[in-house]
Amino acid sequence: MTVSADEVALYLKRRARWSPFEIAFWIFAFATIWLFPGKYLILKDTAILALFALSLDLILGYAGIISLGQAAFFGFAGYFAGLVAKYGIINEPVIALVCSGLITAALGFVTSFLVLRGSDLTRLMVTLGVSLMLGELANRYSNITGGADGLQGVEIEPVLGRFRFDLFGHNGYVYCLIVLFICFVIARRIVYSPFGLSLRSIKGNTLRAAAIGVPVKWRLVAIYTVSAGLAGIAGALLTQTTAFCSLDVFSLERSADLLLVLIIGGTGYLYGGLIGAVIYKFLQDWLANLTPQYWQFWIGLVLVVIVLIGRERMAGWVRIVRSLLVRLGTWLMPRLPALGGAAPDGR
Amino acid sequence: MSETMPKTTPILQTIGLEKRFGGILAAQNVNLAVEPGARHALIGPNGAGKTTVINLLTGVLRPTAGRIELEGRDITSLLPHQRVRLGMARTFQINQLFLDLTPLESIGLVVSERLGSGADWWRLVGTKSAVTDEIVEIVERFRLADVMHERTAILPYGKQRLLEIALAFACRPRVLLLDEPAAGVPEAERHELLATIEALPKDVTVLLIEHDMDLVFSFAERISVLVNGALFVDGAPDEVARDPRVKAVYLGEELDA
Amino acid sequence: MLTILYDGIAYGMLLFVLACGLSVTLGLMNFINLAHGAFAMAGGYCTVFLVNRLGLPFALGLPIAFLITALIGGLFERTLYVHVYARSHLDQVLFTIGLVFMSVAAVDYTMGSSQQFVQIPEALQGQFEVDGIGMGKYRLLIIVICGLLTVALQLILAKTRFGSRLRAAVDDQRVARGLGINVGAVFGITFAFGSGLAGLGGALGAEILGLDPTFPLKYMIYFLIVVTVGGTSSITGPFFASILLGIGDVAGKYYVPKLGAFVIYAIMIIVLIWRPQGLFARGAAR
After folding, report:
1. pLDDT score at B256
2. Contact call for C260 and A66, based on CB within 8 A
3. What DSSP element (H or E) covers A204?
4. How many domains does one find in chain C?
């Protein structure tokens, strides 16, 4: 069987094309703005959590770095965004958001070298340690950060001068959703690029990746930096839309909950964080109504059960479902020329 | 030890290479010279130190004494990925593949890296025609076209072995080190593998470690025999085959005076 | 200043007793057990119940706490943990974090969320004055008990057959199995014992560390620091790491109170940068 370069190029391009399910997902996501008018606050929290989980998926699902310290970047940017708004240093929220992301990415870059050394356990410890350390620092400088009471007196200007964040949360949610979408598109490009492919190779077989010339360390530093930036944007979003930031952004619980979100949703295909965030928030809401004080117990139980069932087994189920959906999609595509489907080619 | 005098400078050379592990001398005074374009085989009984030599050559192990030169350049202190960039690639005795990627993706990865777009994060894989052209060439050379869209983990072992070599080849090395390529390959898939190795272009120098004597004697133009970490015999295949000491080493008979 | 040293040593030795079970577990089965702190908490609450509610003498409460926690540990090991040994580190982390959440909520539900205090006998309250150094009597007890335990542990490891089996299994599990050592049983006993020690530490430490449902979460990081800095291939490694951390924490909280635990985290990170395998690890860690 011979194969042509055009075929290969076409295959690769098609692989990266937005599937009908992705398009449906995002249409629905944006439709929620009109579908659930009373639920803006929880939807907004879900969007922020989804972005936060996306940032972890990039390093965990694509590069294989286990981290309990994403909260460090979330919290750092959260306080940064709050402080620049409070003291009027940067008034336009979008600019503040971008700056928060950039400065947090710089923090990620600096700490990446710590993270790359040692075993899984040391990595866990170092990431957790940095996170808790920042929490202690925030506590120490409570004259700036407000300490245990949280950052008070933050006032956020209207976005682009027009859209003020109000109590109902409509503008806040739309803002978060748009930011989530933009960040997602960036992450998606990264994942389907040669760089993303090299990350997957590092995760799959680091020895061989080095043996074919991949500069492993620098790729990991790069993705860790990007991931930190995205986590930072999520943290800044939270502060901007709630006009508040407190010490619990640095907590172990926050990092652990994030891992749970990704485990529920699955890692390594970008939508895991988004889907996991939705399920997690739903679960949390439902459980909190059932047993307001002890929902943490049920979350713990969910974790234990998921692990006992086995992520491999679950990943296997996910793969089966996905391949069924892909097959359905490929069947649909030729029949929907509006979506740019190619002529049926028997695959 | 009879040998034909080399006419050109060796493309890969070790001078007095030695590796000690505590009290054990895994490689001693190894003076290996591989000619450009050679089809050179390194054979020897189990435990002779052949994989140690490969690990020393590729930088996975550091020698306790001696030098390694690639195209006249001292590479003894270079890291593995740096040696890859200089034109030396290897395969592994036990497959080291990217099990979740397809052969197309794996080969595409190596080619992208080599052509400098490895760090490209905005462009999609497959948009550069130089890359796709090369992917096609390699896929066809290594007879992987019919399985190129399957996950590597589910490929038959023979195809995995071909992919193992294809990945190293995609680095476009000047020197290709093959560590027991036929190991574990079932009889039915062996001929495809051998044909592929034999069809490797002449400008790629191949150093082959093998146990399969059919492969060695049909492929190699020059054979070095390693015993207990030392180079024992080094010469053309028929010389080595006739050498009674080689037979003795393999058959365990006492060496004649 | 010497008081700080004294307090720091007491604190460090307490940390050691608490954390050494974790160290051995990690070194033995390459298993990250983040729920170790939950066993400590169990021991603490056990003692509270026995001494405060049932009126048992303190001296009796301690060993009973040890036994009960060891039993719980052994039970959990056989029923739950054994399913997760072969899994990836991430799975182990998630599993044990799940257990922590469950235990924290369960204790909160049954015992309430306020801090519990153990009724310490009169004899142990107050302090001695020696050369102008205030030496708390309770802390002296801790130093004595923990010191004895450390010596006993070292003796068990070095002089008994069980100890040599354990050391063999830590060194190379496969070879140990090949030699006929029942690694599963070794691990079960060790895990139970380590959990029991944690329980004892929790009972002893209730007075100093503060006992409430969030104990496992608060102190887990300390145990992990001891283990990562001290390495998992010996007893002495975690011992010295604990002392170092104990003194560092007490000194830090005294001299720079607002920074609190910042000092320890900084020490940990610096140590890990310098020696990723821990300060005292011998050879490559797994």
Report:
1. 42
2. no
3. helix A194-204
4. 1
Residue A177: the pLDDT is 94
Highest mean pLDDT among A98-107, B217-226, C22-31: A98-107
Instruction: Extract long-range pairs of A182-188: CB within 8 Å, 24+ residues apart.
Output: A183/A51, A183/A54, A183/A230, A183/A233, A184/A51, A184/A54, A184/A270, A184/A274, A187/A54, A187/A58, A187/A230, A187/A270, A188/A270
Is residue C17 situated within a structural domain?
yes
Cβ atoms of B200 and B138 closer than 8 Å: no
Find where tokens 């001290």 sit: C230
The C-alpha of C172 sits at a distance from chain A's nearest C-alpha, in angstroms, of 18
Which residues 150-209 on chain B approach chain A with CB closer than 8 angstroms? Answer: 167-168, 170-171
Q: Is residue C285 part of a domain?
A: no
CB contact residues (below 8 A), chain B span 213-252, against chain A: none
Q: A50 pLDDT exceeds 90?
A: yes
Query: What architecture does CATH give domain B1-87+173-183+205-257?
Result: 3-Layer(aba) Sandwich (3.40)
pLDDT by residue (tens digit) across A155-177? 888 888 778 887 778 888 999 99
What is the nearest CA distance from A242 to chain C, expressed in angstroms? Answer: 27
Q: How far is CA C121 from CA C58, C138, C210, in A?
A: 7, 10, 17
Distance of CA A144 to the CA centre of its chain: 28
List domains and CATH numbers for chain A.
30-291 (1.10.3470)
Chain A interface residues (partner B, CB cutoff 8 A): 1-6, 8-9, 11-13, 16, 189-190, 192-198, 200-201, 204-205, 207-216, 219, 222
- CB atoms A121 and C221 under 8 Å: no
- Maximum Cα interatomic distance, chain C, rounded to a whole number of Å: 58
According to the model, what pLDDT value does residue A67 have?
86
ipTM for the assembly: 0.82
Q: Is residue C169 part of a domain?
A: yes
Residue C65: give its domain's CATH number: 1.10.3470
Smallest Cβ–Cβ distance between B98 and the set A12, A16, A204 belongs to: A204
pLDDT of residue C285: 33
Residues of C in contact with A260 (CB under 8 A): 94
Residue with tokens 């801790």: C142
The residue segments making up the domain with residue C236 are 2-274
DSSP one-letter string for A263-307: HHH-SSSSHHHHHHHHHHHHHHHHHHHHSTTTHHHHHHHHHHHHH
pTM of the model: 0.82
Between chains, do C259 and A140 touch, taking CB under 8 Å as contact?
yes
Residues of chain C predicted below pLDDT 70:
127-134, 258-260, 276-286
Interface test with A, best of C22, C30, C97, C245 (most A CBs within 10 A): C97
User: Are A and B touching by the rule of 3+ CB pairs within 8 Å?
Assistant: yes
In tens, the pLDDT along A209-238 reads 988 888 888 899 999 999 999 999 999 999
> Does A212 contact B110 at a Cβ distance shorter than 8 Å?
yes
Q: Give me the residue spans of the domains in chain B.
A: 1-87+173-183+205-257, 95-171
Residue C286 domain flag: no
Cβ separation A114–C87 shorter than 8 A: no
* pLDDT value at residue C277: 65
- For residue A89, the 8-state DSSP code is S
Query: ∠B203-B97-B69 over CA atoms, to 5°?
Result: 40
Q: What span, in angstroms and rounded, lies between the C-alpha atoms of A74 and A68?
A: 12
Phi, psi of B48 (to 5 degrees): -70, -20
With residue B29 as reference, give the H or E element that holds it: strand B24-30
